[in-house]
Task: structure prediction
Amino acid sequence: MEHTYINHIIFAVAVLIVIPVLFLLIAKRPSLIPTPIQNIFEVYIEFVDNMLKENMGERGRKYFPLVAGLGLFIFFGNILGMIPELESYTANINTTLGLALLVFIIYNIEGIREHGVKYIKQFMGPIPAAAPIFFIIEVISHISRPITLALRLFANMTGGELITVVLITLIPFLIPLPIMVVHLIAVFLQTYVFMILTTVYIAGAISHEGH
Result:
């Protein structure tokens, strides 16, 4: 178990170093005729930018580094689980919980920064007389967010990784391919879910519609 945790840390640190360096190299030397890698990064940047603008308008671009960074870190962590002999650090609850708590802390800080003390109104509901009940419900709801965010990513990546490894070990030819395709879909889907929920949580925290 300790060996697994060390591997997760090594792979996570490697991704944290390699991906920013790759981004930096592409940004410094953009080609008029984009390479396949440059095309992929440009599509990704446009995708994240559009997602943020759709949920928060132009002000959403402030959170581009956070959401785009989380997406890349989670995606490459997810994809590692599909490569034989490598281990996905997103299949470690410590990693996913750490990411979820980071999102939880940031969106609440942004909500307080945007509204000040009035941020508490988001927890009070639309009916003043029922405010105490709404407050309890909202607090429980917000506390559950990082837990469900972490468990969803952890469970999907752990399950997919285990099934892939078992099938490749028992049936190392064409039969495991459909399962691997499903796992690959989950890699993209779970990355997107984490990114969009992060965006939605921040958008809700800084929104003025409830004030």
